[in-house]
Design goal:
Layout (H helix, E strand, L loop, with lengths): L4 H8 L5 E3 L6 H7 E7 L5 E4 L5 H17 L1 H6 L6
Antiparallel strand pairs: 1-2, 2-3
Length: 84
């Protein structure tokens, strides 16, 4: 499994609301493809605001989560051999 940008954002702020197009791989794509919802207008349409996190923060969290997931592979593979 590969950790995605959405998972990294949620790990940084669980209740963050955002819309994402694709899977950004650099700062320019992140700025263009990730929009943070700050509220709704009178019609219920999302209102977007400033980026909550920088590309550096999100990509660092993504790398951290991926490393954690990869480090636990052995446990996941052995879980069926040792049920509770």
């Amino acid at each position: 499994m590969t950790i995605d940008i959405a998972s990294a954002i949620k790990a940084l702020k669980d209740d963050a609301e955002f819309v994402i197009s694709g899977e950004p791989t650099n700062e320019a794509e992140y700025k263009a493809d990730v929009k943070y919802v700050t509220g709704a207008d009178e019609n219920g349409t999302a209102v977007f605001g400033d980026q909550l996190f920088t590309w550096s923060e999100v990509s660092a969290k993504k790398t951290e989560l991926q490393a954690e997931y990869d480090a636990n592979e052995y446990q996941r593979l052995r879980a069926d051999d040792y049920p509770s």
